[in-house]
Design goal:
The structure holds 2 protein chains of 2 kinds. Chain A is mainly α. Helix content of chain A is about 75%, strand content about 0%. Chain A is built from 24 helices and no strands. In chain B, helix 3 packs parallel to helix 4 and helix 4 packs across helix 12. Chain B starts with 8 loop residues before the first helix and ends in a 5-residue tail after the last helix. Classes of the chains: A mainly alpha, B alpha/beta. The interface between A and B is large, with 60 and 62 residues.
């Protein structure tokens, strides 16, 4: 996406040849899109539409006329949503920060972090639910554990990218600790803080999702009301959540943090006493095939034969992950200018920001249900939901990045500014975000089992319901290994330029 | 909503039975709004009848209620047919105390979108082959287990061989909404949820209607852990049973929603257990 002037003098004037960064990224993007187009015939994209309008009208009227009175103790649900997100993030920070310091040096730490990141928050919650019940412990660990893995990775990358000069200026013999405290931490501090803030917004969304499995956050009532078609009540809860996210810059202020922490801790109390016998039964028996524990090898083979067909499930997971990622890229490309200060007027920007907030804060499951009604059961609703949700999230971050850029060509028209000035500057960052997000998208394919898309997550969810924890755990291990493999592959394949973005805090 | 200090039950036991709170959970088959408000009234009623502190624990799914029961985080639960069987298998000694008066002869409906052209029939029509069908929740007795059983019996084929596409909507109300919208051609649904939706005018019977009903089978039940007598005093199980059977306040009963409760026992649910084993949902 470099201006064409730069390539005009190239030896071969073909319009995608050349070695400039922009052209390499453009080729890379087109390859990704081509791969998705090639694989589309393998996806089940049948469209069935009969009479969705009655139900869609009821949903729309629910959002337009929310029934505030129908929500049971809304303030407590809001408070718990914030408390879980806040303490979950802090827990992740507590474990993730020390791991970040070891991240570059220890393969064990890197693999461990990739492993905990690979399992969706909801599945962590389902695991802990078996031991800690519906308690604060379940909710906090479900957030803190995967977030520790994410913090470790991102903080390590921030540390890698800080300038080396201050470090090298120190006299020889300075201890590792002093070097870190005086020459590294101050340079990375603002980025750490900015990233933590962004992670907190993610934690708020995850905290709502935890309600879907029964923890008493906003999602508890939201899921029930939506599932049972009480859309006015669901509308009220969704509005509460949108307002919570939109007002984050005001209430999520640094000076309010201690107050929020203390208030949150009070809401989360009382901390449940952990029953060690339950914990031991779970880790020593429940999650292992009975035949394995009995040392019965033939029985183990029978057990394996009854595990759902892995090939098809892995195929569906990867296909949906790839299509979702490419879809998210296209959505992000189309939507980011809507919320960016360099385009449109105050009214269009407000609408654009509202749209992005709506798309990124509405749980994917609900977007998917909307498309399920419209388009019928297939991979298509899941694809659209993943693309729109993640695309809007990337667009939001890219717009924030572009807002920080001062244009060098103030006279350029909107289109010119988009094509020649801003897009070339934000695009490497956008691709980097996409590669980060691809990991999340792959994880999210798991929670769209409702649509009958037989991904790995569909079977994990099913086996948790059948209380076959051994099968669920085995499938979780397969999912985690798959995510680690995809992560390694994408790190090898992604263009080097896309790994370096101006502001890693946006990831 | 309070966080539930649930796993504390074992520790409390160690401190002496006097400090014990008797906890129960219940998931109604429809309208799960204001669960705490509604079931706290049931808890108050049980408290006056049992002379112990009673607390309601809200859960989201049958799986979660069985886990809570197994882990002693609740001692009494209003289960579906299948979740009751799962729970009694996992907690030896636990007993089914009572069922709703509707539950002795429960049934499921097969509903169809009008575009299928299917009419109400006494036997399952051959024409449903290769249509699309959605069940309710995966572990629902009336939304999945029994309908699947009768479909297999009639066609001698698993649902995914019989139908072009099989889904799990997760909920009876949602099954009705999705078949009404034509997203799925057929749906399997709990008869009482359907009847209530039709009575309230929440469903357009020009677009979706019942085409077949299953033979009767036993469903929802109250199940209590076997160790409650030791913890709450001799005869506690009988007192709980009496309290449930004598519950006659329409407001309390409407929460389930049932007309009243009648006695039940474990053996009543043997057919459910057999079917679940046959379908591979139990082992």
């Amino acid at each position: 996406m470099t201006p064409p002037e730069l390539t005009r003098d190239a030896a071969r004037p073909g319009w995608l040849s050349g070695q400039s960064t922009g052209l390499r990224l453009a080729r890379h993007t087109l390859t990704l899109v081509a791969l998705a187009v090639l694989l589309v015939p393998f996806a089940d994209l049948a469209v069935v539409t009969r009479d969705p309008w009655g139900e869609l009208a009821r949903m729309a009227s629910g959002l337009a006329w929310p029934a505030w009175g129908a929500v049971e103790s809304p303030l407590e649900a809001l408070g718990l949503t914030v408390a879980v997100a806040l303490w979950g993030t802090l827990g992740g920070l507590l474990f993730g920060f020390p791991l970040a310091l070891l991240f570059a040096r220890s393969r064990l730490v890197r693999t461990g972090c990739a492993f905990v990141r690979a399992i969706h928050e909801l599945f962590w919650a389902l695991l802990f639910l078996q031991v800690f019940g519906l308690s604060a412990a379940t909710a906090l660990m479900a957030l803190a554990i995967p977030y520790a893995g994410i913090f470790a990775k991102v903080f390590a990358e921030i540390l890698e990218q800080i300038p080396g000069a201050p470090r090298e200026a120190l006299p020889p013999g300075v201890s590792r600790l002093s070097r870190f405290v005086y020459a590294e931490l101050p340079l990375a501090w603002t980025r750490f803080a900015a990233y933590t803030r962004y992670r907190f917004e993610c934690a708020l969304r995850a905290s709502v999702l935890l309600g879907f499995v029964g923890l008493p956050t906003l999602g508890f009532q939201l899921e029930t009301a939506f599932r049972e078609g009480r859309y006015h009540e669901a509308g009220a809860l969704l509005w509460l959540f949108y307002l919570l996210i939109a007002s984050l810059p005001w209430w999520g202020h640094r000076q309010l943090l201690p107050l929020l922490m203390i208030g949150g801790a009070f809401l989360l109390a009382p901390w449940p006493e952990v029953s060690t016998s339950l914990l031991w039964r779970f880790v020593s028996q429940d999650i292992w095939p009975p035949a394995l524990l009995a040392g019965d090898w033939k029985g183990l083979i029978d057990w394996l034969a009854r595990v759902p067909e892995l090939g098809a499930a892995i195929g569906n997971t990867l296909l949906l992950g790839l299509l979702g990622s490419v879809g998210a890229l296209l959505v992000a490309l189309a939507l980011w200018p809507l919320a960016c200060r360099h385009f449109g007027n105050a009214a269009t920007r407000l609408a654009g920001r509202g749209l992005l907030l709506f798309l990124r804060s509405t749980p994917e499951l609900m977007l998917a249900f909307l498309f399920l009604l419209l388009l019928g059961p297939s991979l298509l609703p899941a694809w659209l939901a993943l693309s729109l949700h993640n695309g809007a999230l990337i667009a939001f971050l890219v717009a924030r990045h572009a807002d920080a850029i001062t244009p060098g060509m103030p006279d350029a028209s909107g289109v010119g500014r988009f094509a020649y000035e801003l897009l070339p500057r934000v695009y490497p960052g956008m691709l980097a975000l996409l590669y980060y997000r691809a990991e999340v998208i792959l994880r999210e394919t798991a929670i769209l089992g409702m649509l009958g898309v037989a991904t790995l997550g569909y079977y994990i969810d099913a086996n948790f319901e059948y209380l076959l924890f051994d099968v669920a755990f085995f499938l979780l291990l397969v999912t985690a290994l798959l995510n680690i493999a995809v992560d390694a592959l994408s790190r090898r394949l992604r263009p080097r330029e896309a790994a370096v973005i101006d502001d890693p805090c946006q990831r | 909503m309070r966080w539930l200090a649930v796993p504390a039950a074992l520790c409390l036991f160690a401190q002496g039975a006097a400090a014990d709170t008797f906890r129960f959970t219940a998931i109604p088959d429809e309208n799960q709004s204001r669960l705490i408000e509604r079931f706290s009234k049931v808890a108050d009623y049980l408290e006056t009848r049992l002379d112990v502190e009673v607390e309601y624990v809200p859960v989201k799914s049958y799986g979660a209620s069985v886990s809570a029961f197994r882990n002693d985080q609740v001692q009494l639960a209003w289960f579906g047919g299948l979740s009751g069987v799962q729970a009694r298998r996992l907690v030896p000694g636990s007993v089914a105390l009572a069922q709703g008066s509707e539950d002795a002869e429960f049934k499921s409906y097969l509903i169809a979108h009008r575009s299928t052209g299917l009419e109400h029939a006494e036997t399952l029509p051959e024409a449903i082959r290769d249509m699309s069908l959605t069940f309710g929740s995966r572990t629902s007795t009336s939304g999945r287990l029994m309908p699947e059983h009768y479909l297999r019996q009639r066609f001698d084929a698993a649902p995914d061989e019989l139908f072009s596409r099989v889904g799990f909507s997760g909920d009876h109300s949602r099954t009705i909404a999705l078949v009404e919208a034509g997203t799925w051609e057929l749906g399997a649904v709990n008869f009482s949820v359907w009847d209530a939706a039709v009575a309230d005018g929440r469903v357009d019977t020009d677009k979706v209607d019942v085409i077949w009903e299953t033979p009767p089978y036993p469903d929802y039940n109250w199940t209590v852990r076997g160790d409650v007598d030791a913890r709450f005093g001799e005869g506690f199980t009988d007192r709980v049973r009496a309290a449930l059977l004598e519950m006659d306040d329409p407001e309390l009963l409407a929460s389930f929603p049932r007309e009243g409760f009648i006695p039940a026992d474990n053996a009543l649910y043997a057919p459910i257990e057999d079917v679940a084993e046959e379908l591979g949902l139990l082992r």
